[in-house]
Queue: 2 jobs
Job 1
Amino acid sequence: MKQANSNHKPILVAGPCAAEGREQIMFSLEQAKQRQVDFVRISLWKPRTKPGFDGLKEDGIELMAEAARMGINPGTEILVGEQAQSVMDGVLPELGPNGQLLLWIGARNQNHYVQRDIARVASQDSRVKLMLKNQPWHSESHWEGIVEHALEGGMLPENLILCHRGFTPDVHHPNPDGLRNVADSEMAMRVREKTQLPMLLDVSHIAGAVEKLEPVAMEMVEHAYDGLVIEVHPNPRFAWTDAKQQITWDQLDEMLANVAQAQASAERKAILA
Ligand code: PEP
Ligand code: MN
């Protein structure tokens, strides 16, 4: 598949898997300010397989507002429309006219009534970008359905972003590299083409482990992804969620530089061919 995004800077969503507290988020915001990060993850509601820390919830909205006051665009997963509304009420008054708030519907949130209700709330302000992650199981038509529900809920296409976070491996979709989730970039590119929406690659939730991140990020070279989602933590080993797959900001710089270099060299080869 051709490299399509070479004229645009890739969209970068980076920051911790979960917001854990003020110190962690303030450090992340300072780091993000020194880099070209489009949205900082300050994720407040965490769907968990087993009970455990599931987010700062409403208590963390003030941290997102703080990011907005610093001129940084914050982002969080929301599980229901009511949470989207609380985040918008707390953050939008602090965002400048050019600021943006990223809300996303995560992979496990596959109730279409809920998806539509979130879209209804998010569509009330054009500074809100709604990101739709694919569902955990391998199905192109279900993924397209998520987009259709968001549109039916009132979202304008220009405020929608898609994100490929891989599919749970199964007998039909084996996992020789031992990834947490298996990417199907061919499908992601078809969905991108059909919907005409930007498609981000969630490197962290596909890789599942630090040493597997860079090979997954290299999917950017072969496919026309419009950007990346990467989990970055001040002290990954001690992260409260997804500790195995989070990296530091310095490691992020190195990985992005390697991907950019691989992309540039692929483009040079294509020109010379
Ligand atoms: C996340 O991005 O925080 C997350 C939980 O990922 P996913 O919904 O893709 O599992
Ligand atoms: Mn995570």
Job 2
Amino acid sequence: MKQKILFNEVVTRDGFQMEPEFVPTANKVALINALSQCGYAKIEVTSFTSAKAIPMLRDAEEVMGRIERVPGVEYTVLVPNLRGAERAMASRPDEFNLVMSTSETHNLANLRMPREHSYAALREVIERYGAQVPINVSLSACFGCPMEGDVPQAEVMQWAQRFADLGVRGLTICDTTGMAHPEQVAQMCDLLHSRFPNLQLTLHFHNTRGMGLANVLAAAQSGIDRFDGSLGGLGGCPYAPGASGNISSEDAIHMLDAMGYDTGMDLGRLLPIARDLPDIVGHAVPGQVAKSGRITDLHPAPPSVAELRKLFS
Ligand code: COA
Ligand code: ZN
């Protein structure tokens, strides 16, 4: 058995935030409750952003209040600013996931302020709440920005270091618009390990250009043991041109399981939930394994095969 890999399911946050049709609160709660039984280390339940910016997640308080929390699963929430932190704290999350972009243009598009303003605001959140709740910081556009292009690794490391200096528990390095390739990922992971050996490091990939699972593998082979994934491969940032789905959790888990990694996930439970997802969002979803079945799900041979066996025996 290879290393243990831990999954953070982000479908009800990253996955839903760009969906045009509001998913009723009861459906979100039922989905999270079902996912809680599948072996996830974390579930990113929702986001305490402005309801005008992300109408889909306007029911954050209600969702957090209604889910059944399973011991051993951490329920994390995205927090964009101090106002979001105040709202989030009241619903007793296991973690705050703060977010800012390493690209100035993407930060202005997504969070409507320069990076230095975001950093100052997030520092305030950490100073005020860091003693009460573990803090993770998700850095967006770490492998490239759809508006600026290349984002140098030194730039990513600089922002990572500034948050590490504030005492955060973890960092999520996000490929927000699927620009990363496996070679770049391996380099980034080596650098992250050497610079931040004591931080919880998570990689967050999108499959925008079909490189998602290759990037997961490159990161796992570089020793990364935490990944964000979105059921069905839903997702994307509404403020990043051309954004599309995250890596599909079930496809990544299926691949890593097949290769002998210990994901601790129950795919037998997860796949039926993934198969129900198109009904929840009202359209087909990109994930593959829910459609095709696992490599261990065998099909009966056609009757002609038995006849041919006889003929050739
Ligand atoms: N929760 C609820 N409402 C919030 C809020 C929060 N965390 N932060 C701001 N608001 C409200 C304000 O009350 C204000 O409402 P009003 O117009 O009715 O007075 C409005 O949003 C604008 O507030 P302002 O302080 O000017 O913030 P902003 O316009 O600069 O927006 C963000 C800042 C970050 C809250 C907003 O841009 C946002 O939520 N963006 C989406 C980020 C995101 O989740 N992206 C996808 C994930 S990567
Ligand atoms: Zn994402």
